[in-house]
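chain below, 174 aa
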Amino acid sequence: MEITQHCVVGLTWTLKDTLGEVLDELDEPIEFLLGGDDLLQKIEEALQGHSVGAQIDLHLEPEEAFGDYDENLVFLEARSRFPKELEEGHTVEGHALPEGCNPDAPQDLLYTVTDLYPEHVVLDGNHPLAGIAIRIHLTVASVREATQEEQERGTMGTGFFKIEPQAPGGGLLH
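prediction:
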């Protein structure tokens, strides 16, 4: 079956920065909905017309991937406002930031704790891959028609490098 809009594609990949350093490797296929919110536009475009077994190499500039790094999305907050068990790498939803945090911090972002100091916490609202040009090697493992329910939902729930809130010790990228 050929890949078209509104089909479900199982993908594996190797994601590298422009220096060739591996950022992520997906050995077991994960399903993504084309025509929904799961994949970056450039990846969807590249998959069109391919079928199972296809291998695609892409180079994505920051604006085609996770955007440019915005230093205005980095906030320094008082350590005392956060739980003791907070660690670097934890994420905090903007609407759940503790009382007294900077009112200029957008509430619709997910903040990653990038640094912990005795008196301060550094929160970064940028995607961890913002500002980075990436190279991705994709392999198409499966292709099938999306169900009506999947199309209505607009996602398989497995967005490409979507950051999700996590419990302490959880992973960052999915």
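Residues 41-47 form the longest helix (7 residues). The beta strands are 7-17, 22-33, 55-60, 74-78, 91-93, 110-116, 120-124, 134-145.
thats it, cya
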